[in-house]
Amino acid sequence: MKNQHAFIPTVPWVGDEVSWDGIAQIIERNILPRLDSVGSSLFMPIPQPIPPKANILAIEGMLSKPWRNPYPLFAYVVSGNSQMIFNGQWLNLTAGWGVFIPANTPYVAHASLGEQVSPCDVLSISVFTFGALVHRCRLTPKAHYKSSHYAVMNPNLWDLCCIWTELLTKTPANRLAGKGLLLAFFSLLVQTNALPFQARLDNLFPSQWRSLPMPLQRALKWLHHAFERPFQLTRLSRYCGVSPPYLCRLFRNYLGTTPVGYLTKLRLTLAKKLLETTDLSLADIAFLVGFRHASYFIRQFRRHFGWSPSQFRVRERKRLRRNIPVAMRQMS
User: Fold this and answer.
1) 330 in a structural domain
2) pLDDT in tens, 16-63
3) Contact (CB, 8 A) for 155 and 131
4) Is the same domain home to 152 and 292?
5) Choice among 78-82, 90-94, 239-243 with the minimum mean pLDDT
6) 39: Cβ–Cβ under 8 A, 6 or more apart, which residues?
7) Residues 40 and 176 occupy one common structural domain
8) Residue 331 lies in a domain
9) CB within 8 A of 217, min separation 6: which ones?
10) Which residues does 304 contact at the CB level (< 8 Å), separation at least 6?
11) Contact present, 215 and 247 (Cβ < 8 Å)
């Protein structure tokens, strides 16, 4: 197995089909009927040995080696043919089938045989203690289209996933229970309100960003769209069509920072919003905005805002409570 040298850019995927309503329709019209028909086997494909010509695709914003997601993941192929590497084995998923990837299992979301890229449309659901993070991507030979991420805040989703995962290690007599748990999981998923991250990030662009040089505009669009992915300056500069030193000069001259400095501030600003508006744990917030270690997230937050995330949340809760009229507080 080797890395394919052809570079595939990642671009935002917008439109009704990747709105939350569009994603919910896929779950209601595709996944739930398929689950009712085939049960848990929908997400339990039989892997094969990795073919000699297997490649890891070089996709903008994605790692060029197997990735271990610290949370479990469901992937469902809406259309096309998705080729993946799963725990050191090969998966060839056709439309209407999916895979469950347990936490910390190495996998490659997009692979290929030789130089030929197989087009596909995939819906991904990462399961967290707070609920789930959902997005959709479409791969073509020329581009990797990626939708906004939607956070579904319902801890019951985590409980259902954990119970179903435990059943996987037991006897086949639990097939009916497994099917029922997955039907409950995906039904609950579409019945819960979703929080779109991209809408919040669109408000964080610099006020003058449309007048900036085009390579810098492209860099900002990419950072806002892939803020949670591992950062690689060489790939970002290649996507923008300039060298890494030149891109860094653009950031310094027009924004007074570096690409990684801009990304760090973007992540921390979004984390601040989540601390204000949700009850997510610090570890979950850190992971959602792109920090893989909560301790590093806490240090960066304190350095930028002068407060630890916990102190900031307590202060904001007190401030909001002071702003509630006394009569309203007495009613609560």
Assistant:
1) no
2) 899 999 999 999 999 999 999 999 999 999 999 999 999 999 887 677
3) yes
4) no
5) 239-243
6) 175, 176, 178, 179, 182
7) yes
8) no
9) 209, 210
10) 264, 265, 268
11) yes
184, 233: one domain: no
- Judge if 17 and 147 occupy the same domain: yes
Rounded to whole angstroms, how far apart are CA atoms 62 and 101? 17
In this predicted structure, the answer to whether residue 73 has a pLDDT above a threshold of 90 is yes
235 and 304, same domain (yes or no)? yes
Give which of 126, 148, 119, 152 is closest to 136, Cα–Cα.
148
Give the list of residues 6+ apart from residue 152 with CB closer than 8 angstroms, or none.
131, 132, 133, 134, 189, 192, 193, 194, 195
Structural domains in the chain (count): 2
Separation of alpha carbons 165 and 149, rounded Å: 24
Q: Are strands 120-128 and 131-139 parallel, antiparallel or unpaired?
A: antiparallel
For residue 156, the enclosing domain spans 2-196
Q: Express each pLDDT in 164-200 by its tens digit.
A: 998 887 655 577 889 999 999 999 999 988 877 665 6
Domain final position from 147, 162, 196: 196
Residue at 186 is within a domain = yes
- Mark whether 188 and 213 lie in a shared domain: no
> What is the rounded CA–CA span in Å between residue 192 and residue 154?
7
Q: 126 and 9: one domain? A: yes
Identify the bridge partners of residue 296 per DSSP, sorted by sequence position.
Answer: none
Maximum pairwise Cα distance, the chain: 71
Q: Tell me: do 184 and 277 sit in the same domain.
A: no
* Beta-bridge partners for 7: 58
- Best CA proximity match to 200, nearest among 314, 281, 277, 131: 277
What's the gap between Cα 100 and its chain centre? 15
Q: What CATH number is given to the structural domain containing 243?
A: 1.10.10.60
Q: What is the 3-state secondary structure (H, E, C) of 100-152?
A: EECCCCEEECCEEECCECCCEEEEEEEEECCEEEEEEEEECCCCEEECCCEEE
